[in-house]
Amino acid sequence: MDRPVPHRPPVPHRPLIPQPGQTSAAHPRPAGPGPGNPGELPPVHHTLLCVALPHFTVSAPHGQLTGEGLEGVYQSGRRLLSHCRLRVGGREPVAVHGALAGADEARFIAVVRTSADPGPDPGLRVERSRHAGGTERITFRSSLGRPVRVPVDIALGTDLTHLGAVAAGRPGPALRAAVHDAGIRWSAPDGTYATVTADPPPDDALASAGLLRWEFALQPGEARTIELRVRSGRPVRPVGRTSGGPFLPEARAEGDDPRVERLLRTALDDLRALLLRDPAHPGDLHPAAGVPWRCGLAPAEALWTVRMALPLGTRLAAATLRTVARTQLTGGEPGAGRIPGPLRDAGPHLPPACTGVEATLAFPAVLAEARRWGLPDRELAALLPAAERCLDWLRTTAGDGGLLAEPGTAGLRRAETQAHAHRAALLGADLLDACGRPGADAWRDWAAALRGRFREEFWLDDHGGGRPAAAVTPDGRALRHLGAGAAHLLDTGLLGGGQLAEGLLDKGQTEQLARLLGGPALDCGWGLRGLGSKEPGHNPFGHRSGAVRVHETAVAVAGLAAAGHDKEAASLLRGLLDAAEAFAYRLPEMYAGLQRTADSTPVAHPAACRPAAVASAAAVLVLTTLAGIRPDVPGGTVALHPVRGVPLGAVRLSALCVAGEPFAVRISRMGLGMVEEAAPGLHLGV
Questions:
Q1: Strand, coil or helix: what is 561?
Q2: Alpha carbon distance 146, 154 (integer Å)
Q3: Which homologous superfamily does the CATH classification assign to the domain defined by 55-235?
Q4: Number of other CB atoms surrounding residue 444 within 10 Å
C-alpha cells in the first residue's frame, strides 16, 4: 500500500492519523487488535462530530458517551473524556433525538418516565447540548402536574489515550479518578491530566467509580441545568471561533432553491471549525484536512481549499501559502523547491501519487489567482520567491520535454499531474509578468510544448469518440481507465481580464471529455465516480476506485461551466446539491458512487472525514460557479459568466470579498448577472 515520502521535519499540526489510502512516517496504519483487519479505521459515518480545532467530540446519536469506538472529547489528538453516562432515577433516559446544531455543537433530547407519570407519557425531558470545546449543558424539564424529586447520576471516565491508538482498537486502561474541586480529575503516567468540573457542584462525588450525584426537586414546569466542563492540563482555545471571522466573512446565499442558503452556511461553519494556527507564526491560520483522521496540515488539500474559497477573500489563502512555504525544501537539499507531502493511494491501476508534487504545482497557481482576487502587493512580493522555487523545481524535474514524471514512479506520467503542471506554467508566467520577473515567455513556450505532447500522447482515439489516458508508462503505453480525475484537464485557471488560461485539450477533445463526464459511467447521479463503473477494479466504496469525491465533482462543475458545457455542469451540480441535502448539508470528503435511482439516497463511506476542508470549500466553488465570477482586481474589472439554463433558478450571493471589499451578485431567472455591491473603482468587465 502507501508509503511515506522522505522529507525534512514538517510544520506543526501534523495529521493525527492518515485517511484511507494515505500514510506518514509518524502515523503508520493502525495494526494489531484493531476494529477489524490491520489498517482498518473504525466507522464514523453514524457519529456526530462537533469540531472547533484543536478540539472535537465524537458522539453517538443517543448522546451518551460510552467509550465505544472513537466516542469521546478530544483535544490536540488526545481523548480527555471517554465516558459520560447519565442516569435519572437509576435508569438511562430514552433517547428520542440527536443532531448537530452547528459545526461545534450537538444537541440531544431524551425522556424519562417517573413514578409521578399518570400514564405511559413521559413527564420529564432531558436536553443535552455538547460543545466541541468540552462543555456540556444538561437540562431537566418537568411537564408533570406536581412536584417530583429527580436523582441524577453521571458516570465519568477516561483513558487519556491518543486518537491513533483509539482508532487502532488499543485504548489505554481506564484511569483512576480523584475528587477535584467541584468534580473529578484523572492523571496519566506521562504527566497529562484532565478534569471535569460541574456547576452546580455535585451533592456527592465517588472518585473510585468516577460518579457525580445530584438530587433536584422540580416544580411543575420548572427546569434545572447541570454544566460540565472538560479541561486538560494545557488548555488551548479554538481558533476559528475567535479569529476565523476576518479570514472567512459571513457570506450568504439565497434564491429560488432554499437549499443554497443552508449549504453555504454549513460550509462556512465547517471551514471555520477546521482552522488551525501555526504556533511559530500565530498570525497565520490554515485549514486542517478533515476530522477525525487528519486534523493537521495537508499542503495539497490546504491549497485546494483556499483556492476554492477565494470568493471569500484572500486572507486565508495568503496565510496558508505562507504556512506551506515554510515547509518547502530549499538550498542544497535534494528536490529543492518541492513542497513535501505523503503518498496517496491512486486506485487499483496506478502507483501511489505524491501529494507533495501536487502541492508544489498548486502553489504558484493559487498565488497567481489570489492576485486576481485582490491579494495585496506586499503579500504577493513576500510569497513570490517560494512560487519561483516551485517553478524552478518543475523545470529541473520535467526539463524542456514538458511531460512530468513524479519522483518514485519509475517515469510514469499521470494525466492529472500534466494538468497541474500546465496550469502552474501558464499562471506562473502570468505571475512573473505581473511582478516584472524574467522567464514568463519561456514558461508559455514550455506550456505550449506540453499541450502538443499531451494531445499527441495522451489522447486515445476509439469508436466512441476517444478519451484521455489516465497515464502513460515510460515505454509509451497508455493506461485507458477513466475516472473523475480527468476533470482536472478542464481546470485551466484565471488570467487577466477575466480570461481563462488555455487548456491541455483542444476544442473537440474537450467536448468529448464533457460527454464522458456527463455519461452514466462516471456521473452516478450524486456526483462523479472516482473510477468509471465499466472499468476493471471499480468499487463504489473505493476512495480512488469508484466513490464520489466531492472535490473532483466540484472541479468538474466549474470546468464544464467555464468550457460552455452547461448541461453536464448543471447535472453534476444538482446531484451534488441533492447529496448535500441528504447529508444535512455537511458534505463528507467522499461517499459511495452507487447509481442513483428514483427511491435511493446517497450512501455514506464509513471512514470519510466529515467535515473535510476540500468538501466544504467545494460548496463555495459550485455556488459561486453559478455566477461565474472572474475578477481581475489589478486590471480594475470583474466579469460575470453565469451558468446558462439557470439550473437552480434565481440566486443572490452577498458578503463575498473581492479586492478586500464586500461583493454581492445576483443571477436572475433569465440567467442575467448583475453586480449589486463591489469595491470602489471595480468595473464590470466583458
A1: helix
A2: 25
A3: Glycoside hydrolase, family 65, N-terminal domain (2.70.98.40)
A4: 19
Domains of the chain: which residue ranges?
55-235, 241-684
- Give the 3-state secondary structure of 433-444: HHCCCCCHHHHH
678 is written with which cell numbers? Answer: 463591489
Residues 104 and 50 sit within 8 Å (Cβ to Cβ):
yes
Using H for helix, E for strand and C for coil, what is the string for 503-535? CCCCHHHHHHHHHHHHCCCCECCCCEECCCCCC
Contact 289, 18 (CB under 8 A): no
The residue behind cell 432515577 is: 89
Q: Which H or E run contains 79?
A: strand 78-81
Pairing, β 252-255 against β 651-658: antiparallel
pLDDT, tens only, 534-555: 999 999 999 899 999 999 999 9
Specify the pairing of strand 548-549 against strand 590-591: antiparallel
Residues 70 and 44 sit within 8 Å (Cβ to Cβ): yes
**Helices 613-625 and 259-273: angle between axes, nearest 10 degrees:** 140
CB within 8 A of 641, min separation 6: which ones?
A: 498, 561, 562, 628, 630, 673
Query: CB burial class (10 A; 0-12, 13-18, 19+) of residue 130?
Result: buried
Task: Give the neighbor-by-neighbor strand order of the sheet with 204-206.
Answer: 65-66, 83-88, 148-157, 211-218, 204-206
Each residue of 425-445: pLDDT tens digit?
A: 999 999 999 999 999 999 999
The answer, as to whether pTM is greater than 0.90, is yes
Q: Which CATH class is domain 241-684?
A: mainly alpha
pLDDT at residue 562 in the model: 96
**Sign of the dihedral defined by the CA atoms of residues 331, 332, 333, 336, in that order:** positive
**Contact assessment for residue 642 and residue 76, using Cβ atoms and an 8 Å cutoff:** no
Q: In what order do the strands lie in the sheet with 637-640?
A: 629-632, 637-640, 683-684
Q: Rounded to whole angstroms, what are the CA distances from 478 to 14, 288, 354, 455?
A: 36, 36, 20, 13
Largest CA distance in the chain: 86
Report the b/e string of 56-91 with b at 16+ CB within 10 A: bbbbbebbbbbbebbbbbbbbbbbbbbbbbbbbbee
Report whether 395 contacts 459 (CB < 8 A). no
Torsion sign across C-alpha atoms 37, 39, 40, 42: positive
Residue 187: CB partners within 8 Å, gap ≥ 6?
Answer: 175, 178, 193
